[in-house]
């Protein structure tokens, strides 16, 4: 299915602009954006006239409306989009409030990331009971333009993915920073430590993008019983997974408390 429908994005911050860039590249039938200042996103070839300052005018002109304002701003946002599919990528805003904001029963709660600009985002979503199969098809093709996507069966998992995959690079960057800092502590010049770790994570991402799941890669290294195995078992035995899980739990709870 092509993007043969009109799309409007309300909000043009980092995430809204990234999704807009991905969709513009995929050539939708029409793409509008709305923000209070009328600021045009830095997307090659994006027409200035496609940026509105009135969210209601955007809602009336589009088949699908994407809500992408900060959660605090969502408290005062109101549009009449009762006959439209409304997709939210706002952290923490529940389905019931999405219907209150938009007057539409056909609402989808989703999360994406700024990696959408490069077509590398993971965008899971959860649909309300009123969402149709055609709505689902449109949501899939829309988020496939941003990277990869899945429909979830548990609304609460959107908060988990807001914490885990929304803040690119987030937790992955924390791990990379710790490794670079360790190399520097061993006397490696900072620019070399930085370059080495960046290349490591680039190659790791490429390798893990296909083939077995990450845990299988870890087990393969442990079974090989080389130098890496000693480091991995030391991390495991000292609660690495548990400490990381604690961080994810804290971030997930923060996404539930933000609105």
Automatic annotation (TrEMBL):
Protein's recorded name: Pyrroline-5-carboxylate reductase
Broad class of enzyme this protein falls into: oxidoreductase
Reactions listed under catalytic activity: L-proline + NADP(+) = (S)-1-pyrroline-5-carboxylate + NADPH + 2 H(+); L-proline + NAD(+) = (S)-1-pyrroline-5-carboxylate + NADH + 2 H(+)
Domain Pyrroline-5-carboxylate reductase dimerisation residue range list: 156-256
EC number: 1.5.1.2
HAMAP family tied to this protein: P5C_reductase
Keywords recorded for this protein, A-Z: Amino-acid biosynthesis, Cytoplasm, NADP, Oxidoreductase, Proline biosynthesis
Source species of the chain: Thioclava nitratireducens
Purpose of the protein: Catalyzes the reduction of 1-pyrroline-5-carboxylate (PCA) to L-proline.
NADP in keyword set: yes
Coiled-coil ranges per UniProt: none
Main subcellular location of this protein, as a coarse class: cytoplasm
Gene: proC
Keyword Metal-binding in record: no
Location(s), subcellular: Cytoplasm
PANTHER family reported in the protein's UniProt record: PYRROLINE-5-CARBOXYLATE REDUCTASE, PYRROLINE-5-CARBOXYLATE REDUCTASE 3
Pyrroline-5-carboxylate reductase catalytic N-terminal domain: residues covered: 7-92
InterPro entries: 6-PGluconate_DH-like_C_sf, NAD(P)-bd_dom_sf, P5C_Rdtase_cat_N, P5CR_dimer, Pyrroline-COOH_reductase
Domain of life: Bacteria
Pathway: Amino-acid biosynthesis; L-proline biosynthesis; L-proline from L-glutamate 5-semialdehyde: step 1/1
Similarity-based family: Belongs to the pyrroline-5-carboxylate reductase family.
